[in-house]
């Protein structure tokens, strides 16, 4: 069921580069920090579980942040991030395995490796607590299949975030044995974001699976909306990194980690960077 032509040219080039990339040499063995446990701890102390993403740039981002990834990561944790995501894709996202290694050594929250892993050997590039596998990209020539990669990742000790975009992909993820499922609001054909994607797909995901809303969460309203639609955690990159504005990553993270806490909403009436200052605190 290869539908390769529907992938945006920019994404095609990312994938081509990913397929070329080699593995890490020696097989890694990871003692992973539990993401589901971190999510539960955040809930228990009243934080919105936010996975904050160290993403220097992206094909859809204007500008690039060249701050030290460790400083960014520490600011995110100080702002209440439950876990971190670190891009390791070098060519299109400004990431590196070195950045991930340094970040993971500096913080004690779970760290997700954000990359386009398509072959088993690529799992060995660097240790992380969670690796990302993208369903859409694993039915292509020159890639290993999802179930094989999922098992290979778990054999190494990784937890696995399986990224989906449609109900059919959720089914594939669950069939392969996924326990952490992400629904990406960004469509990889047009690169457009639509938060309705998560709302449509979330009901397909059973309760016992950790469900993550990915991409396009820009305002506290968006955060409340995704939580209302069933997200256990929110993966937020651009709005926290604020590559164009160079804003304060710690307070950006806090803004989301406290979304839905009435007092905080009232405290920061002008918090929204997009002019979307209406909040739905009565929702929670
Ligand atoms: O910057 P945003 O819109 O908050 O999105 C973060 C994250 O979801 C996005 O970076 C992402 C989702 N899936 C990916 C796969 C590869 C690289 C990046 C991603």
How would you characterize this protein structure?
There is one protein chain. The protein has 284 residues and is of the alpha/beta class. It has one domain (4-283): Aldolase class I (TIM Barrel), CATH 3.20.20.70. It is built from twelve helices and eight strands. Strands 1-2-3-4-5-6-7-8 form an eight-stranded parallel β-barrel, surrounded by seven helices. β1, α3 and β2 form a beta-alpha-beta unit. Residues 262-284 have low confidence and may be disordered. The structure holds indole-3-glycerol phosphate. Indole-3-glycerol phosphate binds at residues 53, 55, 114, 163, 184, 214-217, 235-239. Indole-3-glycerol phosphate is lined by residues 53, 55, 114, 163, 184, 214-217, 235-239.
- Distance linking N and C termini: 41 Å
What is the assigned CATH homologous superfamily?
A: Aldolase class I
Order of strands in the sheet with most strands: 1-2-3-4-5-6-7-8
What is the general shape? globular
Tell me how many strands there are: 8
**Series of secondary-structure elements, N-terminal to C-terminal:** HHEHEHHEEHEHEHEHEHHH
Estimated helix fraction: 25-40%
How many strands, which pairing sense, and closed or not: the largest β-sheet? 8 strands, parallel, barrel
Stated plainly, the CATH topology is called TIM Barrel
The total count of helices amounts to 12
Could you tell me the mean pLDDT? 89
Instruction: Identify the bound ligands.
Output: indole-3-glycerol phosphate
From the helix content, strand content and strand pairing, which structural class follows? alpha/beta
CATH first level: which class?
Answer: Alpha Beta
Q: Which regions have little confidence, pLDDT < 50, spanning 5+ residues? A: 262-284
Radius of gyration: 18 Å
What amount of the residues lies in strands?
5-15%
Under the CATH scheme, which architecture would be assigned?
A: Alpha-Beta Barrel
Write down the domain tally.
1
